[in-house]
Please model this.
Amino acid sequence: MLKHLHISNFAIVPSLELDFLPGFTAVTGETGAGKSILIDALGLLLGERSDANWVRPGEERAELTAEFDIGGNVAAQAWLTDADLEAGERCLLRRTINNSGRSRAFINGSPVTVAQLQTLGGLLVEIHGQNEHLQLTSAAALFRLLDDSGDYRDELDAVGKRHAEWKAAQDELDTLEGQTAVPAAELEFLKFQLDELGQFDLGTEAIAELQTEHERLAAGDALLDAVSDSMERLDPESGGDADGVHGGLNQVLAKLRSFEHLDKDIAASCQMLAEASVNTIEAVTALRAARERIDIDPARFAAVDDSLARLSGLARKHGVAMESLAAVRDALAARVEAAGSAAERRDEVETCLRVEPRLNVESVADVGRQHGRCLGRGFQGRRHARRGPGAQGSDGVGAGLGRGEGGDAGLGEPRDGLGRMGDDEGGDGLVRVRIAGDGLGGELGMELRR
Model:
């Protein structure tokens, strides 16, 4: 139910607010008062085409808003839920049109397409007016009338479900086509770049360790001499003859020990000297382990130097620091994998669509044909009963299914002014409607295809 309508800068209306109460509402007024503008505004809110002429002269844009109570409209609530548009008991439609002709549409505050607005509008409002009979020229309207009068809703729902599945597969295929739109040459180049990066451990710690090893190997003899000399100075027992730092600390500590109880600062000094002695020994032990790791190997140095040079070249090639090469590798791997998996999925979807390229609607077509025959016989029976035996009609409406005589697109010739029902020997699932009779000045034929 329409609850509220707001119009701003639309046509000749600067601003309008209308609240509607339950029941029948009549809007009256003189010619030109603007009654039709309300219908035009509602039509635009339901997805009709817009242009800049709707904007009130001198204004930048027109704004239209309609609020509906959909508490009892199950179909509208289901559609909003499927579209993730905050389904509830209230539904707010909004549309803006600027003076350049551009239009924007919103449902419950979320931007939507005009097509979505049209779909929801068809579930909210029916607009009836003069020339309403022209809807009989709409294939969709005729199918709806035919199907609504038949008792085969389950079959229709089944076909709708199958169509939704087919549409989803087709949409997925379109998306996959975009994801796999990578030329073969470019894909090969991506794989080549990935192979280049895959030859190295690109972890941050691994690169830092490689750089440290390179510096250590480059230091070579100078590093070995520095470590050995330090060990000799700290502890003569490690290779020197003179007293080292460790021995000197112990001598000083021995002289002060007998007096530490006399002064607190002497006691504190003794404590620090004792710790320094222990630390000296630990330093010597650590230096000894470091000396054992020093490897003066020209071949290893050349290998490490080559690895760092290649890594530096790859970093320049990709325009990043060496520490960021891992991220480049992961991005390339994801792109290649996406192209491969998308191509595989695309082949699966294409096979599915190729195996079953169209929906199987034969069951619905059969039921529809039977329903159409019953309708045709019912129309003819009621007309003969009303006009009496042998009466000749001057106008009428007939609806039928199947091929007409001679396999043409019609139903065959009208009989007693009523389009007769074909037997549909071809079984092509067509619905044909004919309005015929002298009163209409001829006949209107239409072929509808499911």
